[in-house]
Write a structure and sequence with these properties.
Strand content: under 5%
Low-confidence stretches: 60-65, 114-126
Helix content: 55-70%
Distance between the termini: 33 Å
Number of helices: 5
Number of strands: 0
Order of helices and strands: HHHHH
Length: 126
């Protein structure tokens, strides 16, 4: 999967305001989220396309009724995880990148200030 650079308008204002190091850290979080979503979508496609666990003994109908019997359908099924991943990440992802960035940024700021790198607050202030 080819990872595209992040459009500056897609980066949250608080990340941009924190400086170039924060933007770099956010970019890494978005890349991680994209890779995770890609893997999840590939696993989903594999599990939905795998009918080998069926208890049916009659495999003569499988070639006729199975969507994977058609080469063009099989090709589209292989493209589906990538398309779904691109669509999800283009629409803002699943929210994991934002949370990862906040945790890493707070941990890095606390570590630089001599703290333990953990927060003890009751929430994110949202």
């Amino acid at each position: 999967m080819d990872i595209q650079p992040i459009d500056q308008s897609a980066i949250p204002a608080d990340v941009r305001a924190a400086g170039p190091k924060a933007v770099s850290l956010y970019s890494a979080a978005v890349d991680f989220e994209s890779q995770l979503v890609q893997q999840m979508n590939q696993e989903l496609a594999q599990t939905t396309g795998d009918d080998s666990s069926d208890d049916s003994d009659d495999s003569s109908d499988d070639a006729v009724t199975s969507p994977s019997a058609d080469p063009s359908t099989s090709m589209y099924q292989q493209m589906l995880p990538d398309a779904l991943t691109q669509s999800l990440t283009a629409s803002g992802g699943i929210g994991l990148a934002d949370e990862l960035w906040r945790v890493m940024w707070q941990g890095g700021a606390a570590g630089a200030a001599g703290g333990s790198g953990t927060t003890t607050g009751g929430g994110s202030g949202s």
